[in-house]
Specification:
Elements lengths: L9 E4 L5 E5 L1 H11 L2 E6 L6 E5 L1 H17 L6 E6 L5 H16 L3 E7 L8 H14 L4 E10 L2 E8 L1 H14 L1
Parallel strand pairs: 1-4, 5-6
Antiparallel strand pairs: 1-2, 3-4, 6-8, 7-8
Length: 177
């Protein structure tokens, strides 16, 4: 911007998009000051580099405004984790299943981890049976993103919300609201 431009020649574009041609940066700065604006380098990779006469503070403000607006419309997907042991009681299992459904209905991903302790490591098939049951229970609202895999003493899998289920939930929300 302005005096920080350290190149012998630049292509200058006016505030309304008109071409002023190739000139020295000092000449470009003089034209910008006559207009009460700044000379800003917009394409440094071009040969010669392109500079534009504009109000830099206004440009920065509008750029920040566009970024905030774009952030407003994006949806961040979180990875929610649910942990359970292979010897889980029926009611506890149902509570964990409903929590998983709630995460998936919000559009988040759910990571389900079965934790093995001590001698439970010799009965890993019980954890796999538990996850297989969970897959069948959640089949209407979720897809399996990552199949069950052992990582140390943890058996882990990841669920992703089913697109058809997402659409159904959004439709229900619109009907309620």
């Amino acid at each position: 911007m302005n005096h920080r431009i350290r190149i012998r020649e630049v292509r200058v574009i006016g505030p309304n998009g008109e071409q002023f041609g190739v000139m020295s940066p000092d000449e470009g700065i003089r034209r910008a000051q006559e207009a009460g604006l700044d000379l800003v380098e917009v394409a440094s990779a071009a040969s010669p580099p392109v500079c534009r006469i504009m109000d830099f503070s206004k440009y920065k403000y509008e750029q920040g405004k566009r970024e905030r607006e774009a952030k407003k419309h994006q949806r961040v997907i979180h990875l929610k984790e649910i942990r359970m042991k292979p010897h889980i009681e029926e009611h506890d299992y149902q509570v964990k299943r409903r929590a998983c459904e709630k995460f998936l209905s919000r559009g988040d991903k759910a990571k389900v981890t079965v934790v093995f302790r001590g001698r439970e490591m010799s009965h890993q098939e019980m954890g796999r049976q538990l996850l297989t049951r969970l897959i069948s229970d959640l089949s209407s609202v979720a897809d399996v993103e990552k199949t069950p895999f052992m990582e140390g003493r943890f058996l882990t899998m990841i669920f992703n919300a089913n697109p058809a289920a997402k659409a159904k939930i959004e439709k229900e929300k619109k009907e309620e609201g």
